[in-house]
Amino acid sequence: QIIDAVKASGLRGRGGAAFPTGVKWSFMPRNSPVQKYLVCNSDESDRAPVMTAISCATTRMR
């Protein structure tokens, strides 16, 4: 249900390609008997690295 809600929201990644987040999350297997983790890449290679640090520090979902 969460992935469907994210897809419906139109949320896109912050990278240059602005890839749809819901589509990316849908690549993860559903109903797996093994616990899975979603990892966020917080690479600071952008010209404004402060934005990533602020976003990671203030985001409540971790």
Automatic annotation (TrEMBL):
Keyword Transferase attached: no
Domain NADH-ubiquinone oxidoreductase 51kDa subunit FMN-binding: 6-46
Keyword Iron: yes
Pfam families linked: Complex1_51K (PF01512)
Keyword line: 4Fe-4S, Iron, Iron-sulfur, Metal-binding, Oxidoreductase, Ubiquinone
GO molecular function, one term: 4 iron, 4 sulfur cluster binding
This enzyme's EC code(s): 1.6.5.3
Lineage of producing organism: unclassified sequences, metagenomes, ecological metagenomes
The name this protein goes by in its record: NADH:ubiquinone oxidoreductase, 51 kDa subunit domain protein
